[in-house]
Amino acid sequence: MKDTASKSDHNDTEVPVSQPETEAAEAAEAAAESAAETPAEEQVAPELTLEEQLEQAQKETAAAKEAHLRSVADLENFRRRTAREKDDLRAFAAANVVEELMPVLDNLGFALTAARADNAELKSLADGVEMVGTQFKTALGNHGLKEINPDNEAFDPNHHEALSQQASADVAEGTVLQVVRVGYSLNGRLLRPASVIVSSGPEGEGSETSESAKQADA
Questions:
Q1: Tens digit of pLDDT for each residue in 56-70?
Q2: Which residues contact 146 (CB under 8 A, 6 or more apart)?
């Protein structure tokens, strides 16, 4: 009787499962569940990643091309600016020297005028000095110096300096009546304006015009 109960107990006892087998089964089950839960979008992720990489590469190429074009434009602008600066340097390198020589030219002109006015015997000497002065101006003119002598020309505030106004029956209003001192420009750049006296027209014309305007307003 005891032997029969012992055999029954032996048959009912569960056989323990080894730990490695349990872990392997759990891992397989987890992998299956993960695969079942993976969305369709994630399964095609490699293809989308390639498309994104291609798009990114295209953007980088376009950006590099734009940067290259900007660099080329900047280089061209630099070359033009450098060439312009060199031209200006050549054109106006003598500006300081010419400005220092302008008073010499003024004094030469004043001396010639005085010599001819005060002593007729000095006329021949004055003519010789004038010839030297002309050659001097010609030499400076070869380097871009130009004399501004607006006698009997319309007054130009950009190139003339009005010292005063003077009535004149022969010279129209706003016209240069007398050049007190000539001006000079160097390669188109004004070095010194011509100092002039400007005609205000016939004497009394301005006041008559003003009086007529007052009567018309009344």
A1: 888 889 999 999 899
A2: 184, 185, 186
Amino acid letter, residue 153: E
Residue 148, strand partner residues: 183
**Tokens at residue 68, please?**
């290259």
- Say how many C-beta atoms besides its own lie within 10 A of residue 182's C-beta: 19
The per-type count for the chain, helices as H runs and strands as E runs, is 7, 6
- SS3 state of residue 145: strand
Question: Residue 50 phi/psi, 5° resolution?
Answer: -65, -40
Angle between helix axes 95-118 and 123-141 (nearest 10 degrees) is: 160
Cβ atoms of 200 and 166 within 8 Å: the answer is: yes
Q: Return mean pLDDT, the chain.
A: 77
Residue 60 sits at the vertex; the CA angle it makes with 54 and 63, to the nearest 5 degrees, is 145
Give the span between the Cα atoms of 51 and 49, in whole angstroms. Answer: 5
pTM to 2 decimal places: 0.53
DSSP 204: T
Percentage of the chain exceeding pLDDT 90: 24
DSSP letter assigned to residue 153? S
* Sign of the alpha-carbon dihedral angle for 92, 93, 99, 105: negative
> Interior CA angle at 186 toward 180 and 190, to 5°?
55
pLDDT digits (tens, 9 = 90+) for 23-58: 666 666 666 666 555 554 455 445 568 888 888 888
Instruction: Check residue 36 and give its pLDDT.
Output: 55
